[in-house]
Write a structure and sequence with these properties.
Layout lengths: L14 H12 L8 E2 H7 L6 H11 L10 E2 L14 H11 L12 H4 L10
Parallel strand pairs: 1-2
The protein binds a DNA duplex (13 and 13 nucleotides) through helix 2, helix 3, strand 2 and helix 4.
Amino acid sequence: MTMVSTGRPNEMTMKKSFELREYETVSPIPFGQVATYDQIAELIGAYGCAWQIGWSLKRLRLPSKIHWHRVINTKGEVSMSIGREGTDWVQIDLLKSEGVFINHELKIQLRRYLWKPDLMKDS
DNA sequence: GACTTGACATGGA
DNA sequence: CTCCATGCCAAGT
């Protein structure tokens, strides 16, 4: 591909690629772990487009093979919105099924469940 | 074609 | 850590 690394999503590129890359990034998330929108956005080279991540996921609708339920916000909580018809609660239920403990405040221990990509060449 | 909304993030108080 | 205000990009109206 080697497209122009303008630092922002290729405007000329196909939008499908955006969601595609998103899924490609979300797919490798292991069982029982979660990733933040910011993480996904940065991984696809779209830092600051975390909002767009949620947009793409929403347009997918259920059922979806993508591990969308493993994507949460940087606050360590599941983003809930009335516009989702309660799918947010489904996400919480799915996370619980994976053994992820969720606080009464719907907060998750990112420090324990946050997924770490192999981008860390040194530690 | 312009304004509003949205499953967000960051910075300052 | 929590709350308020601002910035980001794309789809919907």
